[in-house]
């Protein structure tokens, strides 16, 4: 009985250790290996958003159900489409989006396993500013007996404050930690920060 | 799924007005300016007055803040902003200048911790620049308590995101009854869905008479992770403004939260699964 318990504990510890090392390795390498794709998605999304605001979600593991949120001044429309249906393109057309550019963006998001992209606002000295928030769902972040994690990225337009551990800090009060969606973000470069989160949005 | 347009919904059917936007603006104009208040040391009086003007002119932009547990207080704010904007503006100005004010049957007298915090909430989106909204939310959360607040009754920094600010269904209905002169009709509970055989029919009927508050499982309505939620619990209050079916038999719900109307298509089974509480109201005949 004691031997059985010992084996279970060793197995659980091994799983936990393997899971942690897998996450660390992933975060270290993922942005570097996919920088061009991620930056391209971010830049094109921002240009499209500035013309006509929207958010995109890839809703399932097969990445063939698309969630589209259309933001107008007073109304948010939330739609779900299958990629094999014509309604997505019809809707983009109806709301005057650049259908070709958004279709290409969706294809690239599918290839990069981006599950969510949106524009978030925040305020500094009472001035409204924006960041692009992007989540990646990758099987390397899955681990046995652990909740699924997402690699989330925050792209800022301006240089951000961070502490000696690379944690994102408040630009106005650099001694204060700054969370986004409840997660602590860490520096990739002066304008890009990441977090491993249990939520993709 | 085919695209559909949001309809104005119940906003046009909901015509009881105790005061008007114009009266609220005239009152705020008559004040010209406010002095800083010793009760709210971190609230800029000019920004406070500006916020009150925005509440009066664009009530549906009233915003609860990102990541906070203020959704219940935000949802019920529809009532004073829509039906009595002058009464709300007067209440807020009194609360600011005197540190206490009466609304309905309740004397709101916020604690020192809350008064010190108002104006300092940060990274909550537009709530950052709405000290008046912060005063209102923090004061309500400080005053009204339910069983979810049992283990965290006093405000500490960051408690706007914790159980301190949470609202269960009974507390929500109690707030409506005590703050406003309303007949409140509620169905449902915190963990048990309302016993209504045809939820779409019921909501359609209720929504045809006026706005309806829904207490729902937001994790299913707006998914934030790719897991099947087995034990759904309600976490979010919204104001249902309209509900109707489209040609493909999908149900379109138009609801108000986070300073915007949202139109979302759901199927009947999801609608049934997410709703735990339904509250509608009528004004008492005087």
Give a verbal description of the structure.
Chain A has an eight-stranded antiparallel β-sheet. The mean pLDDT of chain A is 88. In chain A, helix 1 (2-51) runs antiparallel to helix 3. Chain A has one domain (27-197). With 201 residues, chain A is an alpha+beta fold. Chain A is globular and about 65 Å long. Chain A starts with a helix and ends with a strand. Chain A has three helices and ten strands. Chain B has 286 residues and is an alpha+beta fold. Chain B folds into two domains: 9-176, no CATH class; 182-283, Cathepsin B, Chain A. Chain B has helices at 21-31, 45-57, 71-76, 78-83, 85-98, 112-117, 131-143, 169-179, 199-207, 218-221, 268-274; strands at residues 101-103, 106-108, 182-188, 212-216, 236-245, 251-257, 260-266, 275-283. A six-stranded antiparallel β-sheet of chain B has the order 3-8-4-5-6-7. In chain B, strands 1-2 form a two-stranded antiparallel sheet. In chain B, helix 1 packs antiparallel against helix 2 (45-57). The longest helix of chain B is centred in the N-terminal third of the chain and has 14 residues, at 85-98. The termini of chain B are far apart. Residues 2-12 of chain B have low confidence and may be disordered. The chains are: A alpha+beta (201), B alpha+beta (286). At the A-B interface, strand 3, helix 2, strand 4 and strand 7 of A face strand 7 of B. Strand 3 of chain A pairs parallel with strand 7 (260-266) of chain B.
């Amino acid at each position: 009985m004691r031997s059985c318990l010992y084996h279970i504990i060793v197995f659980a510890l091994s799983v936990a250790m393997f899971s942690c090392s897998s996450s660390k390795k992933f975060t270290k390498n993922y942005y570097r290996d996919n920088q061009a794709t991620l930056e391209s998605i971010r830049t094109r999304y921002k240009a499209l958003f500035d013309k006509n605001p929207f958010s995109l979600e890839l809703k399932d593991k097969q990445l063939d159900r698309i969630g589209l949120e259309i933001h107008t001044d007073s109304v948010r429309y939330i739609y779900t489409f299958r990629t094999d249906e014509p309604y997505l393109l019809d809707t983009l057309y109806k709301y005057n989006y650049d259908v070709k550019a958004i279709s290409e963006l969706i294809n690239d998001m599918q290839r990069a396993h981006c599950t969510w992209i949106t524009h978030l606002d925040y305020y500094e000295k009472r001035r409204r500013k924006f960041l692009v928030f992007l989540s990646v769902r990758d099987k390397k972040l899955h681990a046995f007996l652990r909740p699924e994690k997402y690699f989330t990225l925050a792209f800022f337009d301006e240089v951000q404050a961070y502490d000696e551990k690379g944690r994102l800090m408040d630009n106005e009060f650099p001694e204060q930690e700054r969370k986004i969606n409840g997660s602590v973000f860490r520096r990739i470069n002066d304008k890009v920060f990441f977090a491993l989160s249990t939520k993709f949005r | 799924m085919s695209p559909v347009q949001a309809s104005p919904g119940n906003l046009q059917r909901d015509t009881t007005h105790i005061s008007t936007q114009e009266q609220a603006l005239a009152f705020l104009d008559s004040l010209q300016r406010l002095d800083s208040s010793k009760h709210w040391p971190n609230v800029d009086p000019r920004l406070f007055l500006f916020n009150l003007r925005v509440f009066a002119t664009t009530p549906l932009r009233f915003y609860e803040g990102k990541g906070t547990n203020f959704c219940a207080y935000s949802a019920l704010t529809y009532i004073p902003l829509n039906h009595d904007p002058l009464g709300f503006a007067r209440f807020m100005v009194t609360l600011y200048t005197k540190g206490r004010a009466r609304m309905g049957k309740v004397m709101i007298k916020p604690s020192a911790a809350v008064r010190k915090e108002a104006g300092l909430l940060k990274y909550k989106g537009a709530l950052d620049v709405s000290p008046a909204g912060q005063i209102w939310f923090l004061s309500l959360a400080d005053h009204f308590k339910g069983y979810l607040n049992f283990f965290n009754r006093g405000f500490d920094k960051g408690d706007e995101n914790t159980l301190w600010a949470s609202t269960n269904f009974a507390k929500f209905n109690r707030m409506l009854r005590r703050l406003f002169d309303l007949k409140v009709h509620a169905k449902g509970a915190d963990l048990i869905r309302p016993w209504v055989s045809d939820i779409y029919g019921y909501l359609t009927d209720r929504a045809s008479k006026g706005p309806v508050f829904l207490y729902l499982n937001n994790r299913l309505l707006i998914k934030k992770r790719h897991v099947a939620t087995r034990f759904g619990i309600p976490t979010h209050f919204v104001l249902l403004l309209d509900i109707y079916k489209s040609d493909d038999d999908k149900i379109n719900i138009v609801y108000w939260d986070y300073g915007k109307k949202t139109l979302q298509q759901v199927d009947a089974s999801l609608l049934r699964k997410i709703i735990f509480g339904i509250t509608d109201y009528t004004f008492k005949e005087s």
